[in-house]
Amino acid sequence: MTPSLRPSRRQILTAAGIGAAGFAFPMSQKSFADTSPNERPVFATIGLRNQGWAITNKSFQFADFAAFADVDANVLGENVERAKKRQGKAPDGYADYRKILDRDDIDAVMIATPDHWHTKVAVEAMLAGKDVYCEKPLTLTIAEGKLIEKIVKQTGCVFQVGTMQRTEFKKRFLQAVALVRDGRIGDIKKITCGIGGSESSEVLPKVDVPEGLDWDFWLGPAPKTAYRALPEMRKGYGGGVPRYTNCHYAWRNWFEYSGGQMNDWGAHHVDIATWALGADTTGPNKVTPVSYSLPVEYKDGYPTVEDRYNVPTKFEILVNMPGDIPLVITSSGDNGIMFEGTKGRFFVNRGKIVGKPVEDLESNPLPEGAIEEVYGGAVARNHTDNFIQAMRDRTQPISDVWSHNRMLETCHLANISIRLGRELNWDPDKREIIGDEEANSFLARDSREGYEIDGI
Asked: Which intervals hold domain Gfo/Idh/MocA-like oxidoreductase N-terminal (predicted)?
């Protein structure tokens, strides 16, 4: 990208109507369409542990990485060296992601921080004129999703959410959506999303913060608390850190930083279910907690202790989708999605797609172009490829913020229903809970002082 095609932060802020009267789209939004098709975009990654490196590693074939940022000096240093081996040049490393946003040579950022940081980093990146690829689940609250939608619209930035089941895994999920849309199971009667449960923990004592980790910055917008961990170390994926902690890989077990399995795997499987139903521009009307287990005692929707994991360990949630189609989200059974209709049923996950409607494809294949129609165009090589195609065309990619947020609202509502222990009625047009002031208070959270979103 040449600097002349890049809007300045001042132009973006003015165009977004932030701190200025009126509103207009940027006059000179950066565009790969105006440059050579062979020109590689310049990326930066913010948040590098585990998934951060995973999405970076698969993107070297499409982009050059000029900078990394992470609050853990050890993670940052290790991945700078990894990148140097991959692309022949080391990216600059920063402890503070804002130094990346200040640079004029970076076209897009990939965000793989813990969930409670996503919105702040993503909004500030867009206001700085960067396109954004952000890991799922995109938000910690429904209000955050609305804010991101507003800033995407105002800035004209391209925004890809990392729900890569829409593009990868041998296109099984695209095939599943195409089967439903082509009527191969008749009218849908029920969809079940098996997403697994979370583990509980013993009491986690306060311990010294590991050397190299900026704990206060890691907490960021979340409430101030002590670093906690048990001595046992995690093995395999996410290894080299405590298995039981309120940081590192285990932050997913805390409502302060995530939505547990409901938002983690739910953001994948509920997404495909919602997409297949054609409900990605609306949402449910009711969410009922059929059964659930919480690892600690709750009062008024909040855990009464702060030294143990607090997200649900087991659950079954019944969601009334448009047309009163039941969507069941459960921690039981196989991880994947079961589609049931009047003419048959099939099951799909990352490793397989099975059932008679799938077997029947051998003698009665899907119509030509059915997969491409689901996708909305030529199928990309992977999620990053789709993102860069959208950057070139200045269009939104296959996993856009609007459809993602509509799906994720179902997951957020499921968690709220568990925390309060009651059924919730949802208005998908107003995007608020009907007749329940206490439940509506969970649609947003305040950021810790000093970590509010800059520029709004």
From this structure: 76-162
Compute the distance between CA of residue 1 and CA of residue 34 in angstroms, rounded to an integer: 9
Number of other residues whose CB lies within 10 A of the CB of residue 302: 10
Picking from 41, 49, 48, the residue whose alpha carbon sits closest to that of residue 66 is: 41
Cβ atoms of 107 and 43 within 8 Å: the answer is yes
- Contact of 370 with 182, CB cutoff 8 Å: yes
Per-domain residue ranges of the chain: 3-166+387-400, 192-335+403-439
pLDDT digits (tens, 9 = 90+) for 406-418: 999 999 999 999 9
Give the CATH superfamily of 3-166+387-400.
NAD(P)-binding Rossmann-like Domain (3.40.50.720)
Pairing of β 42-46 and β 108-111: parallel
Q: Quote the CA–CA distance of 401 and 327 in Å, as a whole number.
A: 22
Which residues face 319 on adjacent strands?
287, 327
Residues 443, 142: contact at Cβ < 8 Å? yes
CA angle 68/70/71 to nearest 5° reads 155
> Which residues make Cβ contacts (< 8 Å) with residue 5, sequence separation at least 6?
28, 30, 31, 34, 35
The values of phi and psi at residue 240, to 5°, are 85, 10
Q: Which two tokens stand for residue 435?
A: 């007749």
Structure tokens at 185: 């199971």
Between helix 266-277 and helix 172-181 the angle, nearest 10°, is 30
Cα–Cα distance for residue pair 356/200, rounded to 1 Å: 38
Predicted model pTM: 0.92
